[in-house]
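so i finally got all the pieces together for this one. its two components total, 700 residues if u count the protein bits. some of the lines might not be protein, just check the labels. i wanna see the whole assembly predicted at once instead of chain by chain like last time, that was a mess tbh
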Amino acid sequence: MTPELQRWLAAGAVAAAALYVAWRALRAWRAARAAVRTPGCGPGCGCR
Amino acid sequence: MTAVAAIPHAAHVRAGPGTDSLRVALVGNPNAGKSTLFNALTGMRQRVANFPGVTVEHAEGSYARDSAWITVLDLPGTYSLAAQSPDEAVALDVLLGRARGVPAPDVIVVVVDAVNLERNLFFATQILELGRPTVIALNRMDRMVAEGTRIDVPELIHELRTVVIPVSATRGEGIERLRHAISCAPSLPPAPARIGLGDEMDVERRYAWIADVVERCVVRRTRSARTTSDRVDAVLLHRVWGPLIFLGILLLAFQAMFSAARPLADGIESLVAVAGALVTRVLPAGDLRSLLVDGVLAGVGSVLVFLPQIAILFLLIGLLEDSGYMARAAFAVDRYVRPLGLQGRSFVPLVSGYACAVPGIMATRTIQQREERLATIMVVPLMSCSARLPVYALLIAAFVPAVRVAGVVSLQSLTMLGMYLLGTVAALGMAAIFRRTLLRSDTRALIMELPRYSLPSPRVLLASVWQRVRIFLRRAGTVIFAISVLLWALARYPQPSTPTPPTPEAQLGASALGRIGHAIEPAVRPLGYDWKIGVSMIASFAAREVFVSTMGTIYSASAEEGGPALAQRLRGERDSRGRAVYTPLVAIGLMVFYVFALMCTSTIAITIRETGGGWRGLGWAALQFGYMLALAYGGALLVYRGGLALGLGGGG
């Protein structure tokens, strides 16, 4: 395997990892935003 | 007369072919054995889900019988129909068909703990008054027999005017008869309102009626004899011995964790090393080889090494919980935590926090008082969760000598116990502060049922350990893997343009990671840390274990290929003046930082949700994150600076 091919494969792996981390961050952000927008079942939520 | 004989003419009712389906709700007091019975009924074919619109979890499972498909819902444990906690409110709504998107059950099965018949019948009689098809599963009959007590089941059927099936969920006895009774229940005429206690709130009349029924139905041979359980409780709940025994058990657990896990951890380390050697042999030098060896294997591999310790920790926690000890530990410490404004009931979520803060915070739903529940939520993440374990274990293995104190207890286990105690004491202290400032209210006396001692089922134990191991492996294979790849790229590029190949250390210093690290170094320098620790700390805000994987990646990138294990590299790390970067003082300070810091997005999200959601929830979560960060930085600073002032040495 040539160094050039190795570089391309490594770059692809890094790009995929970056996309994955970005997707996870987006998901966490959306979950936090949803938690902020919708009252949950907590003290004082009135569900009792 | 058997219990089944009380339901004549019913066996044929649902025997016809077709696609009949029945929805069955399992209800009962907490610890009545509902979940065990649920597993016995459904053969553990279950899924765990939330009810629509609320965040109360329940298990749903099913089984087939006589061409009918029976769906079983395991509802949260409830003491009475006067719902006091969110869990109880949801159970009640489901029973009454008021829960959004959840049809009312066709049959209600009330699981009654035969050993605590009087208290369990309180709730059972309330359910019977709903006038719905109801079957009573009289659980733990085997225990009654073992204790020399007998229940006159026909008399109980006569008094309650409903079907009563004696079962032993743990042994699987009576399950088939219970399934039969469930299938027949919808066809039976509703029980006449025999009890007729009228007003739901008339607690005294209800108890008087139940006491009368119990007097007639329960035949005790050894009425006043102290059981073995009582004798064991006298020791475990003792005001002095109780907490001491708890500490001793924790210490033993950590010792077992260190010693038993070592061979397995060594095995995983060897496997990682073999994989690295294999990649090095197959691939020529280049970016992909470096990515696999210095990024993935060094990063993910350094975290995977801690898998055996985590599995053993969960096995021990499961053993303590399932044997009935954990509830006693809560009782034993109740008298000590009450002055702090918490009750023993808060202790159960706190102990759950040893595994993970998320279920710990969820478990606060059993606390009825708002202020007490909020205070508990705020401090649960201070309990050392399993994600901190790799950080402690790495630093302890590297810097705490493997010697024995007084020839018995290993110093490493003692240090680990110290970290867990520090988190626990901080949690109690912070709770006391919250309860005296923002969250003031009276502390209620603890009324908690002590579950019977029982031999934990190996199958259930192994299932829970496997679940945690799977979560750990998934994290290692996803987030930690991806972050390791990114950190490898940041640690490798840009490369310095020198005529000769740079040394690994020079290349790391010139890389993006090196530059970021040097930029944040002033913030962590007062704590005695260099830029490598600083970068690892920042990265671990994604997940605590990332600290270990980042250290793995950084130290792999800064060394020649095939170097020693991470702990050895840390011990050998020297600064530009040849002094040891990691001294025991730095390591202890670092561990203290990890004891206090809240580095878990899941915990932040669950805190927002469980403190009421909305901006109010966000406010509580922000307060939690902020005070924990302040504690972490302050604590680490105090340890390092205090240690230096005492001449304990920080620069080696």
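The radius of gyration of chain B is 29 Å.
Chain B touches chain A through 46 residues (CB under 8 Å).
anyway lmk what u think
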